[in-house]
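tool=predict chain=A
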Amino acid sequence: MSVNEKVIIRFDFLSKSAESAFNLTKFCIIEHYNLSLFNMKKILLVALVALASLKFTFAQSDVADMLRFGTHDANLLIEAYVEPYAKGLGVGMNNSWYYTAETHKLWGFDLAFSVSAFKVPGSDKTFDVNELGLKYLYAQEGNSIASTAAGDGGGVTLYYDADYQGQTVSIPYFSTPGGSDVDMVPVPIIQASFGLLPNTDLIGRYIPKVKFDIDNEKADIGLWGIGLKHNIRKSLPFIKHLPIDISVFGAYSQINGESTIHFDYEDYGFANPPGYSPDENQKGDLTSKNFKYGLIVSKKIAVITFFASVTGNTSKTSFDILGRFPMPDPEQLDGNFTSVDALLANAMTDVDDPISLNYKDTYIGVDAGFRLKLVFFSLFGSIAKTNYVTYNAGVSFGFR
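tool=predict ok
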């Protein structure tokens, strides 16, 4: 694989940009709203595209550069670079579960299509390289602020210290990748709600894993989620006469994705050693687990319902690069190397599962919005304030 090809270590198994995924989703919902079986499949696939549009924007050469000083520094650099997208994925999946505190009547049903777009704040668009705890690499003082994947700036030059004729020499190594300038990313959601119990809605999200061929790599992604909303106003005698609906809510959702990887010595710019056989089990693995619970209040005025909520949220997102990979081990040279080429030539080893990124986010959220009930469908929208601001809008079809 050429070092100029886009890296397969990424979240966007299908989409070239979050903006194109959003436009495609909007087109399918507007132009194919008749919900025939054929169009439903198209909408499901579009949702997968956009859910996977959170991406690593590395080129293959960037990844090879980061791996040249071993797993310790590579994990820290990649983790800081992609953190806003990993956090935003959990924020997006924890939105659009509801648009009213009212529950369905027994056997009531609706099908909702929505887009939850999270906005990355300025504080998550950059990171300080020298505060990561890198073991071998560093940036010069006063020039250590690098752009994350969601930022709009450039990277910074990293250096390493080498022993040369008894003296320590600072040698420039490479520049971290610049930002993608994509700080608002849409996460489309498709879900169904059922009134299966008195004053209680069961909410489900499910898209089975769908397989794709992307840049000659095999990839798949899918999701599922389940939620429960119970209207306590109708269950508690002392508040049953209030002119509002009050519900408690809880939900869990999970995304799983996987992509094959082909990585060997040629990605460092060197020929494979004689007899070297790359691991055929190399792959990237993505998992995001998200939990949300809280209290919803809504008031219906004619055809418009206004709602607000306070929620607790937890998100755990992980991305692992699994399999056997050729990587250098700087410890084998005890710091006595004057070029990266020397490191590659004299300290290479095979490393299993070199990258393991884990993000955990716990936060309190508040949101407010409305639902407009029309003849055959409803329109809804809201804004949520968590660690990221999120904008939600959608349409639902059904009966209560």
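Helices lie at 18-31, 37-51, 60-67, 70-93, 340-346. Residues 62 and 177 are 7 Å apart (CA to CA).
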